[in-house]
Amino acid sequence: MRYDVALMVFMVFAGLVVAEENCQLDLTIYKNDTVRISDVKIVELETTPERNSFNDVTNYSLGVYAIDGTRLYKTYLPVDFRVYELEEISHSYETYYVQTPVGERDYWQTEIIAPCGGNAEELWVFHRNPIFVYRFDEIEDERCQLGYNGVCDPDCSDLDPDCIIETSTTSTPPLTTVGGSESSGGNLLLYLLTAAVLLVTAFFVYRKHEENKQAEEKQRKRRKLIEWIGEQLRDGEDPEKLKAVVRSQGFEEELVDYVERKL
Prior knowledge:
Elements: H1 2-17, E1 22-30, E2 35-43, E3 60-66, E4 71-77, E5 82-90, E6 95-104, E7 107-115, E8 120-127, E9 129-135, H2 161-168, H3 181-234, H4 239-248, H5 254-262
Antiparallel strand pairs: 1-2, 1-7, 3-4, 3-8, 5-6, 8-9
Helix pairs in contact: 1-3, 3-5, 4-5
């Protein structure tokens, strides 16, 4: 009973920490269909716009699925292993840029923002057929997901109910004590566990505050970039030139397509 109370205290505080629904991650796809996901973090940003029928879309795609198998998000990935050189061409009245392939590399890399909260369970990468699956709650991504789903989340230590169940199946039965020592010892353990929960929660709150500051700054830059893209497109600027500029600023080139559809 005491352990249940401590767990409930933790879950109440943790609810303040993991209210966001989207994750930002670095996605790398190699020519041999090996996939690597890194730098996963929760952000208060919109998901990457879904791509469905663009000319540069390949047979690679990414999807996020719920616990019951429902698809929550899907986008095609413009995977291109070629390396381009940006060439400036000037005429008497205008200047534009042309991308010329100059070689190839073994990997393609991008940044994706996809739903990962609520009932989101798995992220799949496809190259016609599935080639990679990422479980949001079983990989050490510094994100603790509590819940009875049969998977012990390593980021929760022994606070995930599934971790507690897993531990209890292999633990040694407690020794029986006489008199009031069992009650006093149990109370002390409860106090220590509650204090530990509060300390862990305080750490997550602080870290969330720092991450939010960084996310807000990036979101501010993102909004300014979107406004600038809209102004350039309305002035007749070449979208491919804008994509090169967007990439140089560390953002996904799909922003240009996204703004172009909104105009």
